[in-house]
Amino acid sequence: MKTLKIGVAGLGRLGLIHAENIYNLKGVELTAVSNLDEEVNKQVKEKYKVPNVYTNYEEMLEQTELDAVCIVTPSGFHTEHIRLALKKNLHIFCEKPIGLEVEDIKQTIDEIEKSDRIFHLGFMRRFDEDYLYAKEMIDSGQIGDISLIRSYSIDPIQGLDSFVNFAKKSPSGGLFLDMSVHDIDVIRWLTKSEISTVWATGTNKAAPELNELNELELGTVTMKLDNDVTALLVAGRTASHGYHVETEIIGTKGMLRIAASPEKNKVAVFNEHGAIRPSSQHFPERFAEAYVNELKDFVRCIRENQQPEVTALDGLRGTEVALACQESFDGNKLVDIHY
Amino acid sequence: MKTLKIGVAGLGRLGLIHAENIYNLKGVELTAVSNLDEEVNKQVKEKYKVPNVYTNYEEMLEQTELDAVCIVTPSGFHTEHIRLALKKNLHIFCEKPIGLEVEDIKQTIDEIEKSDRIFHLGFMRRFDEDYLYAKEMIDSGQIGDISLIRSYSIDPIQGLDSFVNFAKKSPSGGLFLDMSVHDIDVIRWLTKSEISTVWATGTNKAAPELNELNELELGTVTMKLDNDVTALLVAGRTASHGYHVETEIIGTKGMLRIAASPEKNKVAVFNEHGAIRPSSQHFPERFAEAYVNELKDFVRCIRENQQPEVTALDGLRGTEVALACQESFDGNKLVDIHY
Amino acid sequence: MKTLKIGVAGLGRLGLIHAENIYNLKGVELTAVSNLDEEVNKQVKEKYKVPNVYTNYEEMLEQTELDAVCIVTPSGFHTEHIRLALKKNLHIFCEKPIGLEVEDIKQTIDEIEKSDRIFHLGFMRRFDEDYLYAKEMIDSGQIGDISLIRSYSIDPIQGLDSFVNFAKKSPSGGLFLDMSVHDIDVIRWLTKSEISTVWATGTNKAAPELNELNELELGTVTMKLDNDVTALLVAGRTASHGYHVETEIIGTKGMLRIAASPEKNKVAVFNEHGAIRPSSQHFPERFAEAYVNELKDFVRCIRENQQPEVTALDGLRGTEVALACQESFDGNKLVDIHY
Amino acid sequence: MKTLKIGVAGLGRLGLIHAENIYNLKGVELTAVSNLDEEVNKQVKEKYKVPNVYTNYEEMLEQTELDAVCIVTPSGFHTEHIRLALKKNLHIFCEKPIGLEVEDIKQTIDEIEKSDRIFHLGFMRRFDEDYLYAKEMIDSGQIGDISLIRSYSIDPIQGLDSFVNFAKKSPSGGLFLDMSVHDIDVIRWLTKSEISTVWATGTNKAAPELNELNELELGTVTMKLDNDVTALLVAGRTASHGYHVETEIIGTKGMLRIAASPEKNKVAVFNEHGAIRPSSQHFPERFAEAYVNELKDFVRCIRENQQPEVTALDGLRGTEVALACQESFDGNKLVDIHY
């Protein structure tokens, strides 16, 4: 079995996770990385024995022989980096979102579809064992037809300062584009329905400093879907207890809750505060296994020459819906989505 | 201490609960009941040693010396029965809603306010120990300012047939007026804010027979409140696991969940289905103690000549908001509420 | 229905609870109290409108016409107070234990049995809704035959100082006699078996000050029962999180846990400590309803002239087993119990 | 980094797990397997591309160049297979127990210690994230000194038939040697104390067919440890809800429960049975990650030439205690353990 040579573009928080996961995959070589920060590059080179290290993405593509690239650069560069990789005939694993503008994304998808390369999008929740367990229960009819789905993504308040610093430098795209795309994808994936109308509300009570950044600390979206499903979505940045990602599905025959409490593990602590279940503290902890699983699936897809279940179109839909949420919030009105 | 003489009007499911609770209160006599069904009256007379039994409300008021009346008749009669009781100078405990039409309610409130009688409205959740515990945490600042509140009231599917029969005979007022008024009251009570805009959605997937009755099986309302709070509300009639009444409050410093699972008691059962917490099955079980507590408070208010915290205006607001929810659902549009 | 006149003997912590509960019972009058502390007596007289207040138990019996007495005096006086009440032909509600010495208890039981009076023993857990729910599941065969039962009673560390002060003045009888009798009764009640052999261990790590008092802070007993059941029992005085009373039953078809976590209510709190279920803090809170229910049952037994399910013999057995536990701990050996 | 060549001896249920985990480890080659069943061998050869397949352990050692061997053969062969591997100068990963007889184990340990080879024993719970989290809390003093530890290992009833078939062919060593050694190791590991006295009880109520096999379906052991700790241990074979492995630690400042309910994942299901947390169904599911982690640690130890934290002596102690439990049960007496 031929060793797959993969390069990682971008070594931010998530890029480092992907680099480590690729390094640990059997049959795979972390052949190259490209990243602006030379200090980080040096550490990664040593830690994962990376033969080729660049500060420039295009140089990496030009100078190293690769089978695939893992794109974890800032969102604004994604479509360009996808196109460059396609020109080099590389398989692509790309973090969400595909891009920030709908037309740009559509053109990129055209190019992806014209190629025969594997394109894998980083909707890692689809590879989390809890979500997969729920998906299987739903698909096997155990809770009947879905009437309602509710999904929360609330970041821990510990991360607020670093988010503020980040948002001051470059626009995040807003709460819905930055955070809710995962929930939007989960909603579409579990219900097999498209979202037709949205109404978004929100507040900055817990982080008034976000007002001047035109960002939201807590946002809510109510969605009507095709097939008579309602979806409720909450996104936030200030959970005291940790990283709260929860999804509830109410079906005609039963109800599921995925991670109603963000349990860190199976330990309960009884102390002066009561009976406590410690919480997951951040996404690398909560989705550690899902991040490994999606890369394993990427490798499997390449080896079996099979497109992954999650498609570039799923990425486009997520962006379209998130933009409609932002429009609804900005105008305080119902927004119908026309794909 | 003088014994309080109380009459109960209406001996449906909830009327029987109130009758029993009044019978068991110390210092109180269940002096009379009025109710159409003579068979039920006979049983109640025997069980609770009721000296005066009537099939007609007015006769009860005319012929029995009472201090107070507990009105549990069908909602359409409430305002009339309140007025008749006020004419007899009786203190009034009235089940929600005060009435079905806003103008009628307003006039009734006028008459209540002109009298010096105690008027106690049956929003029993305000007397439930779980809600009171949360209320105290909120009011003492333990979760900071409220940003979001979510409240579910989902009836058990076991009660669906009897609801359908009931709704065939007399209109329930619709899901929002019939069920959500409790959640609306909880939202107003906990946030101390008024609701300004609503959007309601819903479906009958689990009970298509409700379509022809113009009823909803599952409804969702998103609400904007004064003071920058969003509220999410779900009402339903087909929970498989029991009577699911849950309220979540997200504050700037923490989050509370009241009855996230409708635990029947403190017992966990481990059997072939997994690790199970049995669920409350209906409102008389879930709110047994709250129903007693609200009557104790009614008696206390009479004895101490003090108006209860929950007012007739709270009842009016509940109806106004519920009607706006219905209007939003019917027209599939945002509805602003002007009080 | 004749009003029952009840006197309460002893107004310590639990005596006050019984006094209040009797005061609130319909059809019952809190006719008299006897208690050494005149300040407490004065408060109780006012709060509950008690017509007759004594500092001497015999005087109360002599001078007040009573139907029944509720004995909550220090354990060392119980048998004497029972005998005096029987001479006055009173029905008796007596707190556990009946007495401290086996022979004394046996003679007292003889006198109880010769009388036709109702004798109700304060094993309130038999009247707790959680225990009753489990009992019903067991008796209806839902978990098959019982193989193992585990029962914990751990007092909160907040109460340690007051216990130390109490134990300095008068011997508690030791951890097993003072605390475990409730678990012993629950074990006998749920399994319908007698305990034949015990081995007890323990430590004072969390409260070394108990060493000089010859008391235990944490004790464990393993028990063999007739009918091939094993019981594990833990008693303690230093729980950080509250008042931890838990019972587990492993049957051949399933397993039950009663209050695996001592949930104070149905509220979950999410804050910087994690996902928290607040805990019950002391026995008056945990068993508030059970204390009411046992008195209701006492009244019912008197009115229906029916001996209660829990008997004086149950009290004797509890003491016999607790003494065997103490003997086992003192001698570090297996002790067989011969009734 | 040199690729490590590892052979697996024994391809039963657990052997297959180890083979797969070794196959997936980066920097490691599953170079050979030896196993009696040729059909299984054929499947494994194909699935994991194993170059060398044997039906005889010694042949594998003779004919294949290996760095290490993973011994998962029947317990009765362990000491012999360890000695043969040492002669070939191989590093050894050995499943528990090291052997069935104390003298034989002691001689084997002598030989292990005389060699410079890494010897890693399969106490995988030490590599489970939940146990490690608890261990860290304990070691950092967060629950104070340990007073009591309780540990359950209850197999699912689904596995009973296959156990009965297995036990008919070859003796399991009994419930305590077969199952409780993991709990005994956890108790010693977490408390850092040795077990000095034990009393064991048990029953076959749920599986009377075990009587004739001289096996136990449910066993209980109470243990006194050095350092004033008591341990309670339950082992069983007939849990209705799944694979129940739970450990509780009561310290002077708090209490921990590891997997109080054997939660399969983070999903809660609400259906006609109540609010359900699905359970882990068997050890490969519950300890999937721990099995991977212990092999990673084995590889790390080899590469860094460092003996693992878990030693051969830990294996000996487990066997000595388990044998004492069996002796206690057989004689219904306290048994002191002299190491």
Give your account of this protein's structure.
4 copies of one chain form a homotetramer. Chain A has 339 residues and is α/β, with parallel strands linked by helices. Chain A folds into 2 domains: 114 residues, 3-Layer(aba) Sandwich (Rossmann fold); 181 residues, Dihydrodipicolinate Reductase, domain 2 (2-Layer Sandwich). Chain A has 11 helices and 15 strands. In chain A, the strands form 3 sheets. In chain A, strands 12-11-7-10-9-8-15 form a 7-stranded mixed beta sheet. Chain A has a 6-stranded parallel beta sheet with strand order 3-2-1-4-5-6, sandwiched between helices. Chain A has a two-stranded antiparallel sheet with strand order 13-14. In chain A, helix 8 crosses helix 11. The model of chain A has no long low-confidence stretch (mean pLDDT 96). Chains B and C meet through helix 6, strand 12 and strand 13 of B and helix 6, strand 12 and strand 13 of C.
